[in-house]
Write a structure and sequence with these properties.
Number of strands: 12
Radius of gyration: 25 Å
Largest sheet: 4 strands, antiparallel
Strand content: 15-25%
Strand order of the largest sheet: 6-5-7-8
Number of helices: 11
Shape: elongated
Length: 375
């Protein structure tokens, strides 16, 4: 139990605390710049464990349940700044420093600042990692050709260097994998380099069909080559920022595509994980070294920012959705409508948390273990 606490729980809480602090600091920083008074900045929920009050009047505190955090602004009845508030008892000066007393643009900026802070933090982490430790990748060099594969039939050989495929420059083995994956059964013209000479080969990736747990069939291209080499590229700081920004965008796009496939039923939901899976992964990456831990933290930061932008009431994206409706209607949604929307959003979030926790319990074989005890 002590080993599990040190190896898994503590790394998970440390990473989560950093990401929550970054997210809430985004809200806090923009709120203060907009002239909003902040009553509480809390890491965690529930009773305060310890804290202090700054000269600005903000109570900075660590709370007992370290699974999130919030920034409570002056005049709000709850940390979510949801719905309208009764500010009839406030003076004009006090009303001017409330969240709801600010313009629609200022409120939108404050809400969006949390997810944006997570994206920026991920870019900083990745850029620092690529500039200091380097960026590992597999070069487009064929180390192994599977006998009888499409690559073997086309005449590809070990030590061939893939230069282009269908006119697209191939800089990394992952570029080739991605292109082939999307071209099942389609002819691809490849420019390769072999023994200092350049050759052109026609390759037709085999169409491979797999069936997921829901019975949906997925067809993708397979070439039949492997690369076992890893090269570490050190980037200058400016290039590192550009690459980190591009990769952050790619992770966002890939995540949205995966969510869309799950909603459409073409992809299984068993990939979804909750706190238990994140804790398990946090412990594993922490034991793998600081490079893997930083990369994992960056990916989690991206996902935290993206999830908070989903248009679900009680999340930041839900607030932004309300503000968009306010722009369209020329006035805010009624308080009753916002309350019902918040209840629906909370119910959806709770249901999703229960679902991913069940996935975690199944994946970690806790359900099987309990079943064996009961049996």
């Amino acid at each position: 139990m002590i080993t599990g606490l040190v190896d898994y729980v503590l790394p998970f809480l440390a990473i989560l605390t950093v990401l929550v602090f970054v997210h809430e600091m985004g809200h806090f920083w923009v709120a203060r710049r907009a002239g909003v008074r902040v009553d509480v900045f809390s890491i965690g929920f529930g009773p305060e464990v310890f804290g202090w009050t700054a000269a600005s009047g903000t109570r900075w505190k660590i709370s007992a349940v370290p699974l999130g955090g919030y920034v409570k602004m002056f005049g709000d009845t709850d940390p979510a700044s949801a719905g309208s508030v009764d500010d009839s008892g406030l003076s004009e000066a006090e009303r001017d420093v409330t969240f709801h007393g600010k313009s629609l643009g200022a409120r939108s900026a404050i809400v969006a600042a949390g997810p944006i802070a997570n994206f920026l933090f991920a870019i900083i982490l990745l850029a620092s990692l690529y500039a200091i430790a380097g960026r590992p990748y597999a070069p487009p060099i064929v180390d192994e050709v599977v006998a009888g594969s499409a690559a073997d039939d086309a005449g590809l050989m070990a030590q061939d260097v893939i230069v282009e495929a269908d006119g697209v420059a191939i800089e990394r083995f992952s570029d080739l994998r991605r292109l082939v994956f999307e071209q099942p059964g389609n002819r691809i013209v490849m420019l390769i380099e072999r023994d200092g000479a350049r050759l052109t080969l026609d390759v037709t990736p085999r169409a491979v069909t797999e069936t997921d747990r829901f019975g949906n069939e997925h067809t993708f291209g397979q070439l039949g080559v492997r690369s076992n080499q890893v090269v570490t590229e050190h980037l200058n700081p400016l290039h590192a920022v550009v690459v980190a920004t591009r990769e952050t965008g790619a992770i966002v796009v890939q995540t949205l595509e995966a969510v869309g496939q799950m909603i459409a039923g073409t992809r299984g939901t068993d990939e979804l994980g909750g706190p238990l899976r994140i804790a398990d992964m946090s412990g594993s990456v922490a034991q793998s070294g600081w490079v893997t831990t930083i990369w994992f933290t960056a990916v989690l930061s991206i996902n935290l920012g993206l999830i908070n932008l989903f248009p679900i009431p009680i999340l930041d994206g839900g607030h932004l959705l309300f503000y968009g409706i306010e722009v369209f209607r020329g006035r805010p949604l009624g308080e009753r409508a916002q309350e019902w929307a918040s209840i629906a959003g909370l119910s959806l979030v709770v249901a999703l948390m229960l679902f991913v926790t069940w996935n975690d319990l199944v994946r970690l074989q806790v359900v099987d273990y309990i079943g064996s005890l009961l049996g």
